[in-house]
Amino acid sequence: MEQRFNEIIQSLKQSDGALPEVINLDSAETKSSELDQYLAEVSLFAHRRVVVIRHPVWLEKSKKGGSKEWEAALQAFSQRRLSQLHLILTAVKPPGSGGVLEVIKKYGKVLEVPGLNPRQMLEWITEELGKSGVKIDREALNLLAKSGRDMNYLAREFERLALCHRGQTVTPGDLTGIESDLADFNVFRLTDALLRKNTREALKALASLMQKGEPVTLIVHMIARELVLLGKVQALAARGESPSTMARLLGKQPFRIDKMRGSAIKTGELLRAFAQLAEVDYAVKNTTQDHRLLLEVMVVQICDGTA
Fold first, then answer.
1. CB of 252 closer than 8 Å to CB of 244
2. Which of 108, 167, 206, 307 has the smallest C-beta neighbourhood within 10 Å, fewest atoms?
3. C-alpha–C-alpha distance, residues 82 and 253, integer Å
4. Cα–Cα distance for residue pair 65/257, rounded to 1 Å
């Protein structure tokens, strides 16, 4: 889907000789009135404006095709007929029948983006891991390709493998959570809970990691990596950069940027969290203090904003 989106953007670039302005709107937080404002006028800084909403609930889950307010916003946009304004909506499942879908069909296009076939999936996995200096044996490759996980989930598994097995060959024993419930993927459950400042979920995920014997240094590194990315996103947001620009500058997928933008951790709290991380990292490597207790205290303080 992202590949098809990029093809559309590049076709507009070839047509105009310059990239369009791309505005990524948060599907959970954007109101129909905000969408209407973005689709009311052309950008002052680019020839075209492309507004993108990925997986809006009102499009994907509504059997009637969306609420009346969204239908009205799309109807108003379609009647303006400004050739330099474009709206792209993405959905995992085709929207149901109803007003929104009828407006889309009448004034726009519904494009079905096929998923990767088995051969393409194998090639994609091998290529993505290769970018991080990780090789994978045939059995592990087949397990990943046939796991049924979506590509966002697999991309996160690639990141973990890159951290733990750079320069090595991954075997089936190195895979985490591929055959289990997604809710048991505890490394990312922990970091996601920290970003939301959900103490209960973070401590639960940490306990599971410790019980499974995950290295404490890896846990600290994963937390630090996520908070560093959060800091970069907050710095770019303070400069007024758009989510699409952040994704390009940081080399991260849009869903990662959206997650950071939605974090409950503020800048001042983030600075204190870094100081706490440094203390825990030093204590783990140079003292005999209880590692689990150190991590639990740090998790509670990050979630409370007192780190």
1. no
2. 167
3. 30
4. 28
37 C-beta neighbours (distance < 10 Å), count: 11
Residue 108 neighbours by CB under 8 Å, 6+ apart: 78, 87
Considering just the CA atoms, what is the radius of gyration of the chain in Å? 22
Strand (E) or helix (H) holding 247: helix 243-250
Final residue of a domain: which of 48, 77, 107?
107
Beta bridge partners of 24: 52
Report the domain count for the chain.
3
CA distances in angstroms from 299 to 224, 263, 264, listed in the order given: 12, 15, 14
* pLDDT tens digits, one per residue of 28-38: 778 888 888 88
Would residue 113 count as lying in a domain?
no
The whole domain housing 241 covers: 186-304
